[in-house]
Amino acid sequence: MALFTRIRSVFVMIALSGPLLLTGCVSVPDSIKGASQNIEQNFARVHASPQSFVGWEARFGGTVVNVVNQKEGTMLEIAVSPLDEGARPILGSSSEGRLIAKTPLFLDPVDFKNRLVTVVGKITGSVDGKIGQTPYTYVTLDISGYQRWRLAQQVVLPPQPGPWGYGPGPGWHGQGWGPYWGPGWGWYNPGPAQIHTYVTQ
């Protein structure tokens, strides 16, 4: 019985850790690692006092809501989101504010508008503008590196039966049909497959 308990525990752990295995080991891409050992990533703190952070290297990311091409370069207006350990914007998170990120390069709006992006560079202060008709103060940053992201999807199947027919689910267990852990005839998991959306390069 102890063996079956251990087997059950193993399969429960596998079932619970399945979604975590999809992302694998993550690291910050070279394009946005930056040059500093301590890169500022707390956008709320910077937005509260932009002038206090002028000259600091920072890394922020989110959704590009506007792209403005000018003779001297491109400005990206970014709705900033929290970043995960790989510097990817976290899906489903609320916007933390707006950032104007500038680069002397030409960036085609087709490649950036409504896309997820992470930028790294020096904070230059702030600029007043509007979101719709509402006055708004944007944090400004000069881009030294950027990373575009894309969304991908993967099907996550429900836990499958273990060896010898052991697993959670309906089966014949001597008292009739019903859910239980133990040997079963024709054990199956009736749960639907889940679609997992994640951010990747």
From TrEMBL:
Report one GO cellular component: outer membrane
The record, for PROSITE patterns, names: PROKAR_LIPOPROTEIN
* Keyword Lipoprotein found: yes
Q: Which UniProt keywords apply?
A: Lipoprotein
Q: Which residues form the signal peptide?
A: none
InterPro entries according to UniProt: OMP_Slp (IPR004658)
In Swiss-Prot or TrEMBL terms, this protein is called: Outer membrane lipoprotein
**Species the sequence originates in:** Enterobacillus tribolii
